[in-house]
Amino acid sequence: MSKFCLISELMERGCISQCTDKIELLNSVKNKTLSIYCGFDITADSLHIGHILPLICLKRFQIVGHKPIVLLGQATSLIGDPSFKLEERILNTEESILIWKEKISKQISLFLDFNCDKNNAKIVNNKDWFNNMNILTFLRKVGKHFSVNQMMNKESVKRRIVSENQGISFTEFSYSLLQAYDFSELNRKYSVTVQIGGSDQWGNIISGVLLTRKLFNRKVFGLTLPLLTQSNGIKFGKTETGTLWLDPEKTTPYKFYQFWINRSDIDIINFLKYFTFLSVNEIHSRWKVNMENNDDYWSAKVILAEHMTRLIHGNQGLLAAKRISSCLFSGSIENMLLTDFEQLKQDGIPYVELSGHEDLVQSLINSTLATSRTQAYNMINSNAVYVNNKMINNTKYYFKNDDKIFGKYSLLRRGKKNYYLLCW
Q: Which of 41, 81, 182, 200 is an active site residue?
């Protein structure tokens, strides 16, 4: 794949939302080897699924010979980006940010090659240039190039200014100047000419393009990627509900796998284009026509879920996720491991802690599968209750030691899909 074709393919995949000087960028990519960066502030101890697309985009550039640079914003993490946030961010401590930086650096290595010959990926830290800069230098060097009027017209700022309950602090208001200086400094130190980011970063990226031109009279480019959003239109981020983290201690491989399996049919083709390295032609030929004719979305969802889970959690994580999924939905749990049950308890299905003296009726109530003993009796009598996928129709049933898998877990099911994990 040529460098020129990569930009065309990104557009074909729907991976470019906005771009500065598209024709000139196409020519630059065709004729040069570029250094391209994406920045991540360190505001949690893990990346989340909203970070995957820009990292995969950097990987696509690296594959064809460009140099990817990841900026970890240890300095800007102390400030907080207001972009389309409804409320002021909580300021994190420097100690926390330093610990989180090490964890996030390891996660980035899942995506990029740091040991290839000519275009090794590189992680840099904006604390290196902000740490020794005083406020007067910053205001004279950076602040004088920005109009407050223009800054106030940014959509992310306007939303907060007109909010009745929450305005915007000078701290967050100044964030775009810091990010702009990041771009110019990366251009000076590492010859970076392209910044990528989510579409909510467009204003910040443009600021960096303009500042680099004013400081060094150099042409640089910015492009944004579509945001991964929930069905309600809210982006998947750290402060919204439903966040899936890349750290298995925060989101298990099983839940991660199930997230992709359960994406809506309408999204699946786009997600295959965004996240996999299958060609667009292959995606269309293998699935799109069949889906339109037969509504056969399942095989595409499996391909996507397997690719994403293997990418983040490796082969062992994928095997565990598929094993748990198969056992739950086939009704056979004999092959489940202790670690599988621990994943289910962490975030796979609801669970309840029991003392060990509850009967089946009381466990249905404790698990909220039944709202009363009468309802529990009716469920059992109608053959709708299963313990470890074995139907129980005895209303006086008490759990035996054999029901406690690994001596501590039982799967309680009502009907076909309503599972609860009993923890003894």
A: 200
Residue 290 in this model has a pLDDT that exceeds 80? no
Tokens encoding 59: 């990987």
Q: Which residues pair with residue 229 across a beta bridge?
A: 235
CA-to-CA distance for 285 and 290, rounded, in angstroms?
A: 8
Catalytic: 182? no
Assess whether 51 carries a catalytic annotation: yes
Which contiguous run of DSSP H or E holds residue 410?
Answer: strand 409-414
Considering the candidates 66, 67, 85, 255, report the single residue annotated as catalytic: 85
Is 417 an active-site residue? no
User: Is there a catalytic annotation at residue 3?
Assistant: no
Alpha-carbon span 366 to 414, nearest angstrom: 13
Choice between 388 and 232, residue whose per-residue pLDDT is larger: 388
pTM for the predicted model, two decimal places = 0.90
Question: Which one, of 189, 185, 204, 167, lies nearest residue 81 by Cα?
Answer: 204
Q: Is 241 a catalytic residue?
A: no
Q: Is there a catalytic annotation at residue 89?
A: yes
Q: What b/e sequence results for 222-249 when a residue is b if at least 16 CB atoms lie within 10 Å of its CB, and e otherwise?
A: bbbbbbbeeeeeeebbeeeeebbbbbbe
Catalytic residue among 13, 48, 255, 313: 48
| Residue 313 falls in the annotated catalytic set | no
Q: Which of 122, 188, 238, 250 is flagged as catalytic?
A: 238
pLDDT of residue 96: 92
How many Å apart are CA 234 and CA 247, to the nearest integer? 22
Whether residue 200 lies in the annotated active site? yes
Query: In the block, which residue shows the tokens 């505001």?
Result: 43
Nearest alpha-carbon partner for 37 in 223, 237, 278, 296: 223
How many angstroms separate the CA atoms of 424 and 410, rounded? Answer: 8
pLDDT average, residue stretch 388-392: 94
**Tokens encoding 19:** 């771009």
Residue whose pair of structure tokens reads 């923890």 in the numeric block: 423
